[in-house]
From TrEMBL:
Belongs to the LysR transcriptional regulatory family. Keywords: DNA-binding, Transcription, Transcription regulation. PROSITE patterns: HTH_LYSR (PS50931). InterPro entries: LysR-type_TF_proteobact-type (IPR058163), LysR_HTH_N (IPR000847), LysR_subst-bd (IPR005119), WH-like_DNA-bd_sf (IPR036388), WH_DNA-bd_sf (IPR036390). GO terms for molecular function: DNA binding; DNA-binding transcription factor activity. It comes from the Bacteria. The keyword Disulfide bond does not apply. Residues 2-59 form the HTH lysR-type domain. The keyword Transmembrane does not apply. This is Transcriptional regulator, LysR-family. PANTHER family: HTH-TYPE TRANSCRIPTIONAL ACTIVATOR TTDR-RELATED (PTHR30537:SF5), HTH-TYPE TRANSCRIPTIONAL REGULATOR (PTHR30537). It comes from Bordetella petrii (strain ATCC BAA-461 / DSM 12804 / CCUG 43448 / CIP 107267 / Se-1111R). Transmembrane segments: none annotated.
Length: 299
């Protein structure tokens, strides 16, 4: 007879790239997890996964098992909530995935307010480099930038312009660029995130322009420094290492205190709106609805 632990095991295997990653997600050791998987396969009389030296992948039977296991687990988790007549007393777990910096600064306070309002609710905030599409079992995902190929509904949380910035010390040593193409002579810092082409910087000049001025200009920079952490990249820029493109929400405080200066302010970069991705109306739980209500309130 199948146990809930069996459903959780195969569902986790479908979401993680390796056996060790699955073991971490389930808080067990890889040998113990491997033994559990072998016992389950023996009980079912079929292979659920194929193991190689580098990764583990599910067989077609394993993929079907994982889909149905995930659906059953979701139904089990939603059962207590469906029995509650008073939606103001939420229970169960609400899982949110968000980018590191924005999640710490803007999402965590909203979740704290939600948790205080619903003491029976368990809240899990998972900060990741790429929350989408690597959302796994999250109930809601915060994404910065354009969302592609999503069946979930996107709700905009903030418009979020992107600014080109450098420290006053860097600009004093190297001078300020007058046009985007001048960046080819400057040291640049790039942030590797969301599988974007991070070295291609697209600029547009809004409003009225003088004769001969371009409306758009695209520059392919050669980065001197690269990081997958936006806070690290901004700190490098503040220390005078080079130019960096950062979201307005992150760069604005540094500009206000004088650690950074906005460069080429007459030019705009492609915006990166902050959106909250949630399932369609049919797939939303009362927990997700309560989360949406929290974001609708003035901060």
């Amino acid at each position: 007879m199948l146990k809930i632990e069996d459903l959780q095991l195969v569902s986790a295997l479908a979401q993680a790239p390796s056996l060790s990653a699955t073991a971490r997600a389930l808080n067990v050791t890889p040998p113990a997890l491997s033994m559990r998987l072998r016992k389950l396969e023996a009980a079912l009389g079929l292979a659920l996964a194929v193991r190689t030296a580098r990764r583990l992948s599910l067989t077609p039977e394993g993929e079907r098992f994982a889909r149905e296991a995930a659906a059953l687990l979701a139904q089990l988790q939603a059962l207590p909530e469906s029995l509650q007549r008073d939606d103001s007393r939420l229970a169960g777990t609400l899982r949110i995935a968000a980018p590191f910096g924005y999640g710490r600064r803007h999402i965590a306070p909203v979740l704290a307010r939600l948790a205080l309002r619903h003491p029976g609710l368990r809240v899990q905030l998972d900060l990741r480099e790429t929350p989408w599409p690597d959302h796994h079992d999250a109930d809601a995902v915060v994404h910065i930038g354009v969302v592609r190929d999503s069946s979930w509904v996107a709700r905009r949380l903030a418009p979020n312009e992107r600014w080109l910035c450098a420290s006053p010390q860097y600009l004093e040593r190297h001078g300020a660029p007058r046009e985007p193409r001048d960046l080819l002579r400057h040291r640049c810092i790039c942030i590797r995130e969301n599988n974007e082409d991070v070295t291609l910087w697209r600029f547009r000049r809004p409003g009225r322009r003088a004769a001969g001025q371009k409306a758009f200009e695209t520059v392919r920079v050669t980065p001197d420094y690269v990081s997958n952490d936006g806070n690290v990249a901004r700190a490098w820029a503040e220390q005078g290492l080079g130019m960096v493109v950062r979201s307005q929400w992150d760069a604005e405080p540094a500009v206000a205190r004088g650690a950074l200066v906005r460069v080429l302010p007459a030019w705009q970069l492609d915006p990166a709106p902050v959106t909250l991705l949630v399932p369609g109306r049919k797939g939303r739980s009362a927990r997700v609805k309560a989360l949406l209500e929290c974001f609708d309130e003035p901060s």
